Amino acid sequence: RYDGGGLYVREGNVTVTNTAQIASNTAITGAGGGIYAITSTVVVANSSVNQNGARKDGGGIAAYRATLFAFNGAAISSNSVITGSGGGIHVQGNAAMLSDVTLVGNAAKTGGGGAYVNTLTARLMRTSITANNGGSGPGGGLFVRADLAELNENQIKSNQTAGFGGGLHIA
User: Fold this and answer.
1) C-alpha–C-alpha distance, residues 25 and 49, integer Å
2) pLDDT tens-place string over residues 42-51
């Protein structure tokens, strides 16, 4: 009901793998419609987080003071937030690494439609960021604020926002 419509983890590690599906969950008054993690490590591989919703940040995944690894065909799609940022993923903390990930059809109110990343290190490789909506905030597809940001071989297309950076906003 509050944070973590599908899964809530505090000071631990969570791994979603082997075609697992976190779908159709809602955090009615909080963050992390699919997964909410605080002071934790989240790993999503060869699985999907889709059609989840949250009132605040991270329709699919909300990770605070956390590290997020998504790779090997992970799909984050059709997630949304009502008042916050990071329609698909909202991560604040140590690091975010996305490799061979699809972020498609996610929506946020205040930026980072596909993903909102505010970490020390951000690495995105071979990630498809398509048809996401950042609402009125920066980064329709992707918002990144990091001390070290590395983006390689990504496809960013058909994203939109009323703010800065329809596809990508780096702050």
Assistant:
1) 10
2) 999 999 999 9
